[in-house]
What we know:
Elements: E1 10-14, E2 35-39, H1 68-72, E3 81-86, E4 91-96, E5 100-104, E6 109-112, E7 120-125, E8 128-133, E9 140-146, E10 152-160, E11 168-173, H2 176-179, H3 182-187, H4 201-213, E12 226-227, E13 244-253, E14 258-266, E15 272-273, E16 285-288, E17 292-293, E18 302-309, H5 313-316
Parallel strand pairs: 3-11, 4-10, 5-11
Antiparallel strand pairs: 1-2, 5-8, 6-9, 7-8, 9-10, 12-13, 13-14, 14-18, 15-17, 16-18
Amino acid sequence: MISLRPIALILMIAVGSHAIAGEPGPDLPPDRPAAVAEPTAKVVSTSRKKGRGERSATPVLETFPPTDDLQAGQPAVAPGIERVVYDRSPLRVALSAGQERRVYLPWEAALHLPPDAAGLNAQVIGSTLYLTGQSGQPSVRVIAEGLDGQGMIPLDVQVRDQAGVPGEMEISIATRNERRAPARRATMADDDEDEPEEPDLVQLTRHCSQQLYAPQRLVKPLPGVRAVDIRSKPVAGLYRTSAVLTTPIGAWRSAGLYVTAVRFTNRGQSELELDMDLLRGRWVAATPQHHILAPAGSEADTTAVCLISDQPFDAVRP
């Protein structure tokens, strides 16, 4: 399976100390800080370094500074602008090997790369991405994250040996009306303002966290999201160390995304810091509720990780 480096910048909103479904239980310790993960954007890197013994933290937003070449300015490649609309499905970005391509985003952003993107030179300045790929670079998924919580756009970058790729790409966001089928717009024009938008990555992650940690009285239904069946049995190989036991404990889906809550339990005798780079599978985002697991047998040896994917859990896990 391909291991991507999941990324998710989270604003942790305290909702009180509660266990799963608002009641203390054996799965997650009752004294854990009840936190609701609210990514302000980052579907690919919860990188952080905290001191020993800290129980939770806000992941660090990773940006990529400009290189000397970009500061000096580079000539544009092939003329023409490719205009695309983002409507929740990953966008394909083609590159001609060795030629830089500019991608204009709808907002200022940070850029997040998986570990297997060594042959891709990718930088962001404001709302413009500068991409240069080398021949032989496999297709990689890059995540562009709005800096002010404006959303995330997954980009599937593909490098081609032949020339002819347009020099620039301009991305806009589909409006609610654009997402509806023409026939439905015609028959439900009077109800347009009342129809909720489909939830995005931030809302799905928040929903997952609330289902696990928030008091039941505070949990509100999220329009467009429903629970799906999941086998609550340990999954071997999801995390690259035998010291961690991983078990799915809940799953939900929207129209095009799935979010699965997975319990992570430390089976070792020493404190363990979770690293989302060690996940196996094809994930769009990964959000741990706590980064540090206490030694096995303690009340803080367990946490939950919300995993978002574009297919059901069993289809993308190792």
